[in-house]
Amino acid sequence: MPLGGVLFLTIFIALFGTLLIFLARAMGGDQTRNQTGVKFDPYECGIPGQEKKDTKVSVKFYLTAILFILFDIEIIFMYPWAITFRDFIEAGAGTAVGLSMLIFLLIFIFGLFWEIKSKALEWD
Amino acid sequence: MGQDIFEITINGIKLIVIFLLMVQAVPILVWVERRGSAFIQNRLGPNRVGPLGLMQLLADAVKFLNKEDFLPRKAVRALFYTAPVYALIPGVIAYCAIPLGTPLQIEAFEMAGKMWGPYTFAMQGFDIGVGIVFILGISSLAAYTILMAGWGSGNKFSLMGALRASAQIISYELALGLSIVGVIMLYGTFNLTDMVLAQQGPMSFSFMGNQVVIPWLPNWGLFYQPLGFILFFAATFAESNRLPFDLAEGEAELVAGFHTEYGGFKMLMFFIGEYAHMMIAAGLVTTFFFGGYLVPGFTPAEIREFVAQNLASTPNGISAITSVIHLLAYFVKFALFLWFFIHVRWTLPRFRYDQLMDLGWKTMLPWALFNTILTAVVIYVAYNFA
Q: Closest by alpha carbon to B356, among B169, B86, B133?
């Protein structure tokens, strides 16, 4: 059962990393309590920091994430097809399975070209 | 993890050993990277501490340990501390699913008045049936590390670097996932061990009813999927945030990207995570396209036969020596790809961000689609027109 191994390794690495952080804190000194002075400002290239934390970011990142989810799901649907394609050919059903995948791929390609054409992927 | 206490213990130790090997490989890789870059740029690089500068890594570790623990005022404490620890996890777990050698077989033996075994220990952390899906799924969890670090630092540069990095990672995830479809079609399995075993012997395949054998070429995936190899390898560069795709830390624009506010050991943990992804990439390329742990020209059965005749007499010894030979073959290929990563980093300049996104979406994704369709058509023709 690999799940036990995954859990065990996850816990082990988490403990290992936590231990390293505490070891570094014990040896190097703790500067996390009394945060006064310019030293604790967010890093800025020599000028006083002005920004708030909720810096506005381009909506393109959100759009990219949405498009990623759409296309990633389509790619995941191709995995079970890819793994059984040769079995289907050997069983004599290769034409039907191949053609149905081709239709799916055409929708995929149409989506990709529509996305490029509607300039959803342009970064300026 | 196993049937009885002996097997569970050995499997647990195996996982920890793989993890510690990966952590230990990082300082050596850093040294190789610094020396290699120095020679590429006609410098000397670190050569003072110890022979050839090899002790430089120990000095670095001591220095890292003695850095003070620093938390910026605007940081989110929980995220700021969780991110570096979390950075270690996905890379190591995904790497543990890659087979490193032939399984080690141990005969039944008697210990503490009880019969144990026989056992078979796979030379990999976990032998997972759906290896590819597992590795893709786990290793893309690394995007959360970057977002956690970027948001948790409370710094504009960190946040922007994190957003850029995550957008880049998910964009190349598409090309990566799609370039593997051809590989899956070729081998007809998700299991990495089965893939490796499908690549043994000389190159032979049946095409339109004829059996073609090319005795001077190994039966590697590279020769069936050259385009898939190029796409996959290029996408893994973007996935592991290496040059020429390291837009997340473009110094000129973003200081250091998502780890601007980090230093000392926390910074080192991000490094370990990045190198772990490089190792996954090198391991997967080896497994998919270069025969994994196979020695070119010899099948595992032939090597086993050779070992049985010349090197060992007990079954345990034969199995152990065979495993070690395959382990060495794997690590030679693996090291070559790791060196390739380093060489590319010091050879190519960085992309611009829009060029990066264009390459991912408009070039690599259509080519990966083309590769999928081409593979499907060739397989269809090869089987049907006899």
A: B169
Distance CA A67, CA A112 (A): 10
Residue B3 lies in a domain: no
For residue B7, tell me if it sits in a domain: no
Compute the half-sphere exposure of residue A72: CA atoms within 13 Å on the CB side of its CA.
17
B89–A42 CB contact, under 8 Å: no
Q: What separation in angstroms does the CA of B182 have from each of A73, B228, B369?
A: 17, 7, 9
As for the ipTM of the complex, it is 0.85
Contact check, Cβ <8 Å, B181/A23: no
Residue A122 at interface with chain B, using a CB cutoff of 8 Å: yes
> Is B371 a domain residue?
yes
Q: Which of B64, B96, B155 sits opposite A43 (nearest CB)?
A: B155
If DSSP codes are grouped into helix, strand and coil, which group holds residue A118? Answer: coil
Count of structural domains within chain A: 1
Q: What is the pLDDT at residue B250?
A: 67
CB–CB of B97/B126 below 8 Å? Answer: yes
pTM, two decimal places:
0.88
Q: What percent of chain B has pLDDT over 90?
A: 8
Residue B372 sits in which domain range?
71-116+128-384
- Structure tokens given for B237: 């560069």
When pLDDT is averaged across residues A58-67 and rounded to a whole number, the result is: 86
Structural domain count, chain B? 1
Could you give the CA distance from residue B308 to residue A25 in angstroms, rounded to a whole number? 53
- Interface residue of A22, A55, A67, A83 to substitute, partner B, most B CBs within 10 Å: A83
* B 33-72 residues with CB < 8 A to A: 64-72
Q: Which domain holds residue A82?
A: 58-124
CB contact under 8 A, A17 and B269: yes
What Å distances lie between residue B223 and B159, B179, B201, B271, CA to CA?
Answer: 42, 15, 14, 34
Q: B248: which chain A residues are within 8 Å (Cβ-Cβ)?
A: none
Q: Which of residues 295-354 of B touch A (CB under 8 A)?
A: 353-354
- Whether residue A85 is contained in a domain is answered as yes
B84 within a domain of the structure (yes/no)? yes
